[in-house]
Design brief:
alpha/beta; Rossmann fold; eight-stranded antiparallel sheet; seven-stranded antiparallel sheet; 20 helices; binds 6-O-phosphono-alpha-D-glucopyranose
């Protein structure tokens, strides 16, 4: 959601800013804009894509060594040129870009209007820049102080960058609740919402903390103060993202690339943690909290979207293997329902981006009630990774496709390791069985590789069903969250209505929808409730529904019943989600491509949802 990129240094700012905006496109947006400081503050912006902005400025003078750019995902005011960022202050001496929401913008706006300010846009952002100008004028303070005073008056979340015509060698940045990273080069700085626009220029970064203001001046040391005016020492960290991870590398879409990366990303998420030779699982990041986890009265998993589905798999894993009660909560519900929490509870927050506003709020709530909060995040240095007491990174690498794929399987792999680690410590699984489980987990990346071989077959099935309006996904046990995730993938990228259901629940409602036009995707792998799922398949067939079944290699029984069978390798039941998810990702992908949908940036969706 919304992307920020800014530059100050000796190079031309424009190419860096445009490339940076392209890197941030994956976050989701509906308009884009740029501001360069070259004696004047010049703003260009337009509705649509970054390429539309490039086209728009083609014949313009884009010179300047200092500038900022933005992609906007509309909150206050429709996506159009006027509401796009940057915004000027009234005297046009300041310009701002902003991610987040100023919640008290309405009273501030009324107050500013009564003081003679006029607004050109409907945004909450314009309020902030007028407020800063007003404070500078009326309190005779400099820009930094005016910004500090203004930020003490606003309620809400922000990551902002401000340029000033009268301060041609300075960029100001501030954050609260929305991410901001500063890349430090030689005599130059790069500022962005995440590290993707920065990585090709420098590996040295500073992740800003909430309520910090960065004063970034050319050829000077980075200065950080808090909004209460305390000086902070910038903590420089090393980026570990490779540039290749941000390119499609020959694939048509990032999503396809990321689906194919899963043998590697699952392996990476287990590397150094699964010790087959020693029969051990060690998650270093939560070592200090091992006792806490073992003795937890309850584990509550909180997340949104695909990460919530991974959480559901986690529930099955932790309850079955480690015998600790688990609840899985949508962060957006959890944060507002005054949950019963105590110091004996452990909350696990799962997030690919590490920036999801609802999950962040759920974490703060859990901490305020004394619970221990652990994180499972993909983005290193993200807000959630820093807000939790401890955590485990998934190491899936940057995920650019909006629809989450490799992050999901990496989350499930980490949750599997976590459940096994607690189980081993608690002694809930005999050591010999534990060994078998580890051995099977260790070969999962190879089995994912084998599973990917079904791609061409799935393409053919996709071609048959690409025009349907509705679909149903069924699974039981560990395969129930897989069904939910399969349905979500199809909805997100192909805009076909899809529902995931526990297979046995079908008879309590969705069965009414089944007719000869309704494809039903059933995950019918052997083990667990296999026989029961076969009965569910028969119920669908009796009503002329079309069955696409995910089965284990060589399963003749389901082959005799289903319209299409997709074979995946057999594994332990608790590891099924890591394999059964793959064909569903591919099915959604091919259907979306055949429907000419924008696979990597589906309409209305954002990768990093930084507003509630
Ligand atoms: C958005 C994305 C989903 C993602 C969800 C949670 O809706 O489009 O793909 O699953 O947010 O994001 P998180 O980064 O917290 O996992």
């Amino acid at each position: 959601m919304c992307g920020i990129v800014a530059y100050i240094g000796n190079r031309d700012a424009y190419p860096i800013l445009i490339k940076g905006l392209h890197r941030l496109e994956y976050r989701g947006y509906d308009s884009a804009g740029i501001c360069l400081l070259n004696e004047q503050l010049t703003i260009y912006k337009c509705k649509g894509k970054v390429s539309d902005l490039e086209h728009y400025v083609k014949a313009k003078n884009m010179a300047g060594h200092l500038g900022m750019a933005h992609t906007r995902w509309a909150t206050h005011g429709e996506p159009n040129q006027v509401n796009a960022h940057p915004h000027y202050s009234q005297n046009k001496k300041l310009a701002i870009i902003h991610n987040g929401i100023i919640e008290n913008y309405a009273p501030l706006r009324s107050e500013l209007i009564s003081r003679g300010y006029s607004f050109v846009s409907e945004t909450d952002t314009e309020v902030l820049i007028h407020l800063i100008e007003d404070i500078m004028t009326n309190e005779s303070v400099d820009l930094v102080e005016a910004l500090r005073i203004a930020l003490n008056q606003v309620i809400g979340a922000y990551a902002i960058v401000i340029l000033s015509k009268d301060n041609p060698d300075m960029i100001l940045a501030a954050r609260k609740g929305s991410p901001m990273v500063i890349g430090i080069g030689k005599d130059e700085f790069f500022i962005a919402s995440d590290a993707t626009p920065i990585v090709e220029y420098t590996n040295n970064v500073v992740y800003m903390d909430d309520e910090e203001i960065a004063i970034i001046q050319k050829e000077k040391e980075l200065k950080i103060i808090t909004i209460t005016n305390k000086r902070k020492t910038p903590y420089i960290e090393k980026l570990e993202i490779s540039l290749n991870a941000l390119e499609k590398e020959g694939f048509d879409h990032f999503m396809l690339k990321e689906i194919y990366e899963q043998p590697r990303s699952i392996r990476d998420s287990m590397r150094g943690r699964l010790h087959l030779d020693k029969g051990l699982v060690i998650l270093g990041g939560i070592r200090e909290y091992e006792q806490k986890l073992m003795n937890a009265r309850r584990i509550i998993i909180t997340a949104c979207g695909t990460s919530w589905h991974a959480g559901l798999v986690g529930e099955y894993l932790i309850e079955e293997l480690a015998r600790i009660p688990v609840e899985v909560e949508y962060s957006s519900e959890f944060r507002y329902r005054n949950p019963v929490l105590s110091e004996e509870d452990v909350v696990i927050a799962i997030s690919q981006s590490g920036e999801t506003a609802d999950t962040l709020a759920a974490i703060e709530l859990a901490k305020s009630k004394g619970a221990t909060v652990l994180g499972i995040c993909n983005v290193v240095g993200s807000s959630i990774a820093r807000a939790t007491h401890a955590g485990v990174y998934t190491h899936a690498g940057p995920e650019i496709g909006v629809a989450s794929t490799k992050a999901f399987t990496a989350q499930v792999a980490v949750l599997t390791l976590l459940a096994l680690q607690i189980a081993q410590k608690k002694g809930t699984i005999p050591q010999s069985r534990f060994h078998q489980m580890l051995s099977e987990l260790n070969v999962i990346p190879e089995k994912v590789e084998q599973t990917l071989a079904i791609n061409e077959q799935i393409k053919k099935i996709a071609n048959i069903y690409k025009d349907v309006k509705n679909s149903l996904y069924l699974g039981r046990g560990y395969n129930f969250p897989v069904a939910l995730e399969g349905a979500l993938k199809l909805k997100e990228i192909s805009y076909i209505h899809a529902e995931g259901y526990p297979a046995a629940e079908m008879k309590h409602g969705p069965i009414a929808l089944i007719d000869e036009y309704m494809p039903v995707v059933v995950i019918a792998t052997r083990k667990g409730t296999y026989e029961k799922v076969i009965s569910n398949i028969q119920e669908v067939k009796a009503r002329k529904g079309k069955i696409i079944a995910i089965i284990n290699t060589g399963d003749k029984t389901v082959q005799g019943l289903a319209d299409h069978c997709i074979e995946i390798p057999e594994t332990e039941e608790f590891l099924n989600p890591l394999l059964a998810t793959i064909p569903l990702q591919l099915l959604s992908y091919h259907i979306a491509v055949m429907r000419n949908c924008n696979v990597d940036q589906p309409r209305n969706l954002a990768k990093s949802v930084t507003v509630e």
